Amino acid sequence: MGCRGRPDPGRPKGSPNKITAVAKEALELAFEELGGVEQLTAWARSHRGEFYKLFARLIPIRNELPGGAEESTLAICVKFVSPPSREGV
User: Fold this and answer.
1) Buried b (16+ CB within 10 A) or exposed e, 36-67
2) CA 45 → CA 50, 59, 73, distances in Å?
3) pTM of the predicted model, to two decimals?
4) Nearest to 25 by CA among 12, 16, 14
5) Distance CA 22, CA 79 (A)
6) What are the residue boundaries of the structural domains of the chain, listed by start?
7) For residues 43 and 89, what is the distance between their CA atoms, to the nearest angstrom?
8) Which residues contact 8 (CB under 8 A, 6 or more apart)?
9) Per-residue pLDDT tens for 23-76?
């Protein structure tokens, strides 16, 4: 039990809970069923902005500044631009 004075060890730190694990597995299966990487690439080509929003959310953020400076807020600015035209190639 989780009564005061008797802590419940619960799930080990870092291990995913069962609902999260099941949801991740279901998303992976749906990803493959919908065409996997090939279909994701096709979607990304026509929805670049949305793709990069999703991609940016997967980049790990570290709250460390050069020189050991301490800061409570970390700001990242990313600007995505269209690639140059490939006309005449």
Assistant:
1) eeeeeeeeeeeeeeebeeeeeeeeeeeeeeee
2) 10, 20, 33
3) 0.50
4) 16
5) 35
6) 1-89
7) 24
8) 1, 2
9) 999 999 999 999 999 999 999 999 999 999 999 888 877 666 566 555 556 566
